[in-house]
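Narrative summary of target 7.
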Amino acid sequence: MVITMNKRINFEDSLFLLMMRLRMIRDIITLDADPDFFLEKTLDDIFFTDRILGILLGCLEENRFLIERAEVLEHLSDLESQFSRLLQNLLDHNGNISIQDTPLTRKKISACRNSSFERQNAIGKLTPAKNRQSPSPIVGSDELTELLKAF
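Modeled conformation, tokenized:
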């Protein structure tokens, strides 16, 4: 499937849906569900997520004048970080779904993790320098505590 810039992409909703999908995958691999029921679907979801993250990044690379591009890149970066951690958890067998007995699947998950790292690097290069630094808090912790006492 090829997405061209002629098609309007709703980045916000797409990223939200991918975030929900990642949460679902994370729940599936950590809950005590029968892995035989969910392994194939979970792997399909992982490969789907990997493909869509690549497509979204490609669209952002092509469209340097997107109005909220910096914000979308930040959200995409967060999503990529979560995706990488999820893949690493699968590779480390931290969960109920195991890919240890299937070398081909393990290789594919490793390839997805490597792709995610590459996309994270690409996002870092696309992110404006002023957005790379974490902003200092506007309200200090003591002030925040005072403000929240009313609630």
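Residues 35-62 form the longest helix (28 residues).
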